[in-house]
Amino acid sequence: MRRxxxxxxxxxxxxxxxxxxxRELTKAEDFTGDSQLGVVHTHLLALGMLFFLVVLVLEKxxxxxxxxxxxxxxxxxxxxxxxxxxxMTVHGTLTxxxxxxxxxxxxxxxxxxxxxxxxxxxxxxxxxxxxxAGSPPAA
Length: 139
Known about the structure:
Number of strands: 0
Number of helices: 4
Helix content: over 70%
Shape: elongated
Largest sheet: none
Order of helices and strands: HHHH
Radius of gyration: 18 Å
């Protein structure tokens, strides 16, 4: 459980720092347009911090870390999120600096999204195995 809480905490810190980076870089470059840099902050807070706080509740309720698939979910999801927000940061920074980004950045970001999806599938399979079969619906 502590690892899940620490993961949420790290994403909270990264989310706040990325918001500061976005504000300071755009101010230093007198940039007023749109870039992916503006949503890195939100992605880290929502898909990182908030998501892992929900996973923490699921762990408390169902013992999620007892599933043999949990480590796979944890590492694949985190790798996907790191790739996704990393490429968003690179692409957004290049946009603010007035430079073009190549197709490789989009490809790596796509790989990050694929890993995020695979991680989510593993999470749902893990949850499905932990729930008792034929459990009555909550009233």
